[in-house]
Specification:
Blueprint (H helix, E strand, L loop, with lengths): L1 H4 L2 E4 L3 E7 L2 E7 L2 E4 L5 E7 L3 E10 L5 E12 L4 H7 L3 H21 L4 H6 L1 H16 L4 E8 L3 E2 L1 H17 L1
Helix pairs in contact: 3-5
Amino acid sequence: LALLSSALVVVPPGNRGGLLRWGAIQDRVLPEGVQPLLPLVEAMRPMSVRLQSQILRTEAACRDLQDVAFELAVTWRLLEEKVAVVYRSVGDEAAIVNTVIKPALEDGLKQAVASFTAEQLIRERPALKTALEELIGARLAPHDLLLEGIDLLPLDFSERFRQAEEAKQVAEQDAR
């Protein structure tokens, strides 16, 4: 009975199974549902192919050297047919987030924000989002990950910048 139960494995919904034979990942990917395995020889590692979201909080300097605190939510997913390739080259979901997603977000954000001024970050938010999606999508593609979208959550400028903007507005009002 124990041998028979080890000959079957259930791949949960929204997952694909990376097939391991003697501990080595195989090219064959197991679909959802009950799947047969060779007892003591094969094992399965589930990998989610559902949409996944990662939130990152970081700072970047814009073109006019103002520090801006960002909160980003990136939505991505693993391509079903590439489960074995990704597991072999990167690892499981935790490894994907730590070695691919977070560094791509950090670097992409700093690169994109550096081409905008603080005022442009506020007024041209869709352009920033588009630039980020292009940069980060290009960073994820070689790892067989699909970028579904990036959401820019509230921007937070430094206190020094806020005071300078307030003083500028007061001076403009006084001049009028």
